[in-house]
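#structure-requests
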Amino acid sequence: MKIIDPVIKQVRKLPDVKKQVIKLGEKTYEKTQEANVFFLGIGEFFLFLWQTVKETFSLNFEFKEFLRQCFQIGYKTLPLISVTGLIMGLVLTIQSRPVLADFGAVSMLPGMVALSIIREMGPVITALICAGKIGSGMGAELGSMKVSEQIDAMEVSSTHPIRFLVVTRVLAATLMIPILVLYADAAGILGSWGGANIKGSVSFVLFFNQAFRVVDFMDFIPAVIKTFFFGAVIGLVGCYKGYSAGRGTESVGKAANSAVVLASLLVIIVDLIAVQVTDMLL
């Protein structure tokens, strides 16, 4: 009996074991499906990237649409970038002035703010603002075109949608975002001059002489180069999310939302890689 009793207890537990095995199998199946969707999405993105690169060098380039997208991305974003740049320089100056005053180094304030804005804060903050405005706009616009079957109509009418819709937007974002970053840098330094005059009196010429005395030409090059990658990432992600949106109206909002989130994340990752590369080369 002493040998038989443990066997009987194990037999009675078989239904519970069976339920646990079924739950484990269901969870494994769910995780496998999620992994399949993830890797399928990566494959679709690289296929989309290859088609975009191929159509970029096509002879039938849509130049008028490219100029229109440059106007939409560049000119219509200037008010937002102006306010962002001014506030960025103003806040950085107000925050840094008391710390530098404790060490008697207020004269270093213009150079410190200029270097901070030109090297890092200007490109990253401007790219994140553009990811929110431009990336979401591209995702929502192309997503609504996908839902209303306008993209299918373009394919029927022998108009290549990748060439007309995607290539023009990606190139426009790649070209205009570096210009917007330079504009934001100038606005930020101007805002810093305004912040320096809140608790003091510094002339415009003296402030800019002190600011650019410590700025070297090599401070501009890495910052400008990485902004081209920021623009390409924002354009590609926004267009991909909109172009691959579902058929329902709800998918338009999801495409715009996911475009902002993914573009912002990739901007930070690209900036991290650029900083590491710059640190190794310079």
